[in-house]
Prior knowledge:
Blueprint: H1 2-24, E1 28-29, E2 31-34, H2 38-42, E3 71-76, E4 84-90, E5 100-103, E6 117-118, E7 121-123, E8 126-138, E9 141-154, E10 157-164, E11 166-174, E12 177-184, E13 204-208, E14 215-217, E15 221-224, E16 227-233, E17 239-244, E18 250-254, E19 261-266, E20 269-273, E21 279-283, E22 285-297, E23 303-309, E24 317-320, E25 325-327, E26 336-344, E27 347-355, E28 361-366, E29 375-379, E30 386-390
Parallel strand pairs: 18-25
Antiparallel strand pairs: 1-17, 2-11, 3-4, 4-5, 5-6, 7-8, 8-9, 9-10, 11-12, 12-13, 13-14, 15-16, 16-17, 18-21, 19-20, 19-22, 22-23, 22-24, 23-28, 26-27, 29-30
Amino acid sequence: MTKKWRICVIVSFWLSILTSAAIAQQEQWLQYTVANEAWQILGDMGVSQPRLSSEKPQGVELPQFKCDEPLFMRWNTPMVEAGGLWMALDRTKKDGQYDSVYVDSDADNSLTDETAYQAYRQDGRYTYFGPIKVVFKGEEGPITYHLSIQFYEYQDRRYLYIRSAGWYEGPITVAGQQKHCVLIDQNVNGTFNDKSLNAGSSDRIRIGKKDSRDTRFVGNYIEVDGVLYTTEIARDGAYIKLAKAEDVTFGAVRLPEAITEFAAGGENGLFIEKPKEGIARLPVGKYRIDYWRIERKDDKGANWQLLGRYFSGDSGLLTVAADSQVELPSLGEPIISTLETQQRDAAYNFGQDLSGRLGERIELTREGARPQAPKLRIKNRDGTYDRTFSFEYG
């Protein structure tokens, strides 16, 4: 009887584990949402800037344009076989602004079967179009996606900015707790599951409260309430799967002990760490430093903060391995202050630039705002001229 009881307990135990794993891997579906100028609502939305040309694209059927010089551009997306969709800007008035746009919304290499979108707003040098609907062919049926287009024109300068006008969001369950999930196509290519060593090529994910702005890179992992999960995100953004990460190998990154917060991202996702005794732990892999932060209070209790980010080239790259420790002694203080001067006739302009030792940009704040600008004292050799000037930001 005792042996049978033990066998039943073991079987029940393993069934419980398998059942829990199956629940964790279930698809959790999200709702697709569309809005004009969605980047104003969500933030963390990137922009695509295709090249504008007056040269007609080969192999594309074109409508009868109303202006003599339509402008053409190609939006790149892996969601269509050709790798991109053609668009064209037109004018409804001969001497007016470009105020309508054609988009090959069904990817058939023809604009003749498309209805032009009219601008919904013109603001000085900018013209706004959207939301513009495109339809991709998916394995289980059509997939709808939306774009926002912003056109800039001033004298001989013309630029086109394309952003996503749609995103996915909705409630999901994580470890028995309800959270709100948001998926953002940050690199504006029609997919929501891109992960990359470069932040600009990685999509974005939020898991937390509905109004949370805690945005992470889409990657192999995401940390929620201090627990690490593996992620599986549908290419079209319709659902997400989460499972508690098991048997993850970590490596160590040694930082100057003054650094209070350190963030690095890559295909594993974005990790924001609070180093302990100068040590941050990350899953093994390649990363690019996203930022570092130092916080300190002065003798009056005011909170000062140094933030270093926007590393250039390969200066912010690091590889975390299981059997070694990455040393980053060049982060943090001291920072480099550079005074720039320009002379125009009898006037002089001065500017101050703060940078880190790896070339990253430095932001200095006091109680969350820029501190008072520094002063400049100019004194000649014999002391007959001695004046102090106050700098102004701008």
